[in-house]
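Hey, sorry to bother you again with one of my protein questions. A protein chain has come my way and I'm curious about its shape. I'm sending you its amino acid sequence along with the backbone structure tokens. I owe you a coffee for this, so here goes:
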Amino acid sequence: ITYSTLNVYVHSVNLFIFSILSSLLIFLFSWKRNNILNIIGSILSPVLVLSLFTIIIKGVFFSPEKPVASSPVHFPFLYGLEEGYNTMDLLAAFFFSSLIYQRLSVLYRNQHQRNLLVPIFRASIVGASLLSIVYIGFSYVAAAYSPSLDGVSVDKLLGKIGKIVLGDSGGLVICVCIALTCLTTAIALTVISSEFIQEKVFRGKVSYELALVITLVIAIFVSSFKFTGIVHYLSPVLQLVYPSLLVLCILNILFKTLNVRPVKTPVYISIAITVLIKYLYN
């Protein structure tokens, strides 16, 4: 996404060189695991939120008189929900949650595990509120400028919206915004993946740094497919897996708060129903 957004403004960017430089930056941020949440929470996230709100406020208050009402999609909400699978935000949330839970476990190590629910719930409310504002704001702005977005590929939509709303001079704001979004997600995913490779694949026989290098080399290879190529290969899997992940999230919350059981059986049932529906409609 960062590469595609930058490509809206600078067409001569080489993907391979961009991937190498991005991986080096991710390596530097991911090298010291204990400082990751501090970096994300104190530096990256505030700048990210400020950048997003700059686009939304400018777009909302200086957009055409009213958004376009008509849509070729019969059920926009369901369409948006299904297309949202391809962003893999929920998968990223699983990884972020792991990092945050580990940090909270350290801060509240002398208390019962259930006491973690209160700070986790508060953090979730803040995060959900900010995400809701961002998504609603961008939906409004995109609807208002929809005629200018016709034919723009999915991976370049945000860059195009930013260029329309802020002009060419605002390209830096857009690039920073998208880059920070991807960077914060990439850091969390890289750390968790590296720990998995170190502990599960190599059984602790390699260092974290080596596992980190292996993860980033794989990432460089995958990035060569670009966003559209990655979505093309992952979309069929995500369409089947995501409904069950949503069920798993809800059941885990009920299990932790109300001790509701079982968890696994409804997840398996949701997978079976999803497979059946896909088979019947295809």
In short: The CA atoms of residues 4 and 156 lie 6 Å apart. The two ends are 30 Å apart (CA to CA).
